[in-house]
Amino acid sequence: MTRRRIKLTLAFDGTLYSGWQRQRDQLTIQGILEEKIAVLTREPTALHGAGRTDAGVHALGMVAHFDIASALPCRAFKYGLNSMLPGGIRILQAEEVDFAFHARRSALGKCYFYQFCQAEIALPTDRLYWLKIKESVDFGLMEKCLPLIIGIHDFSSFEASGSRDKSRPGRGAVRQIYSARFEMKSVNKWRFTICGDGFLRHMVRNIVGTLLEVGQCRLTIDDFRDIVAAKNRAAAGPTAPAHGLFLEEIFYNSIPGKNGI
Amino acid sequence: MTRRRIKLTLAFDGTLYSGWQRQRDQLTIQGILEEKIAVLTREPTALHGAGRTDAGVHALGMVAHFDIASALPCRAFKYGLNSMLPGGIRILQAEEVDFAFHARRSALGKCYFYQFCQAEIALPTDRLYWLKIKESVDFGLMEKCLPLIIGIHDFSSFEASGSRDKSRPGRGAVRQIYSARFEMKSVNKWRFTICGDGFLRHMVRNIVGTLLEVGQCRLTIDDFRDIVAAKNRAAAGPTAPAHGLFLEEIFYNSIPGKNGI
């Protein structure tokens, strides 16, 4: 039987899940999707994600692929899976792709955003998707740090400790950041968007946590520069909570942020 | 012992609650608040809300008052209650007020807003606070209906059937709408805001449901005019789902929308 490769673009609310990666006795996005694909096609299958998101992190445009013998049309994957999935996970697109396509290896870049609100007391309807910051934050100071991370850098200072298999050959902690910016969403809400060729584990949350230290005047811009240069996780600020982070998009055809995206 | 009147301004995420009003064996905002106030003050107390919100409706600025002998400072009500309340309910302000103040009777007006997004598949992170509309909606047509509800009208067509005690004397279903408008929040998201001196049960949701029928060309603007004039619930469109609706603010000192609020 001919096998086909199906690419899924999907969104999820990370609130209720223990992250992307399948784990025994845990509700995970990959685990739930693999289970529903098997129900739909009656074939066990392995889903390959473009990356792993941590517990609590949301996604608007995660990508994954799987190979299957089933002759089901793509729309059956989209609508069939959505009819079985909980409301917290939705397939936005299902397409048949060439076997040359690989959700992780073919990715040219990813964009994440992180949402903050400044408030003494967070509105309950914001609590799942916005990090509440009590103290006033100087976004101008944080913006001045951004040129220090845009470009090609060794991001060891922002990598979760013990997260990478150092014996595996590769590019180490060197990543290219294409763009990083803050934008005001409303009177007390901001969004930080960062696009790059790849991200180390906890890298966005560690950058955000360290930027917030600058914004709250607990670190200077020079301290931030020294932290990047230190290539040492111990030098940087705390890891920002997961619930403010969204995986926005994964790029396969063009590099994000090169043209001001 | 001197009794005091405390005014609470509060916000809640209606997702998990069976509405405002205390009900046996149901999680309600009033029920939870009365329980926590009693724990804090060791006095049983009755909380008087500015109105009742339906199950699933959210609030950014609900107001309620209660009378108590406790000498606790107002900040103890605010921080003490917040430390005991679930994340879905937050006290934004606690103030001691004159006994002339009454959360419901002193209110001059209220503003609600209703959130829609137009999408084939709703993003999971929007599903709790935005009504998803699959078909394209003509907001221009909906806007043309708004002058037909602004001002003083008998809103019987938009009142939940069997909701009012007709034997109770009063102004019947006549209400004054100060302002009503649509605004675009992002490329496929809209917010409908309506302010008035008071709202009948399900009135905002029934207006929204009927406006959407116009926006989707299932009713004309003339039909909408006839529906208002009919003073008959059976004439109007369906009740829009609760989860898109937010009680935004209650006005005690000035009339909302008179100066373009």
Protein described:
The structure is a homodimer of 261-residue chains. The first copy, chain A, is an alpha+beta fold. The first copy, chain A, has two domains: 94 residues, Alpha-Beta Plaits; 143 residues, 2-Layer Sandwich (Alpha-Beta Plaits). In chain A, 21% of the residues lie in helices and 29% in strands. The first copy, chain A, contains five helices and ten strands; from the N terminus they run βαββαβββαβββααβ. In chain A, strands 1, 2, 3, 4, 5, 6, 7, 8, 9 and 10 form a ten-stranded mixed sheet that branches. The model of chain A has no long low-confidence stretch (mean pLDDT 92).
Topology record:
The structure is a homodimer of 261-residue chains.
Chain A: E1 4-12, H1 29-41, E2 48-49, E3 58-68, H2 74-84, E4 89-97, E5 109-118, E6 131-133, H3 139-145, E7 151-154, E8 174-186, E9 189-196, H4 203-215, H5 221-230, E10 245-251
Parallel strand pairs in A: 3-10, 5-6
Antiparallel strand pairs in A: 1-3, 1-4, 2-3, 5-9, 5-10, 7-8, 8-9
Helix content of chain A: 10-25%
pLDDT average of chain A, as an integer? 92
Kindly name the structural category of chain A: alpha+beta
Write down the CATH topology of the largest domain in chain A.
Answer: Alpha-Beta Plaits
- At the first level of CATH, the class of the largest domain in chain A is Alpha Beta
The H/E string of chain A reads: EHEEHEEEHEEEHHE
Alpha-carbon Rg of chain A, integer: 19 Å
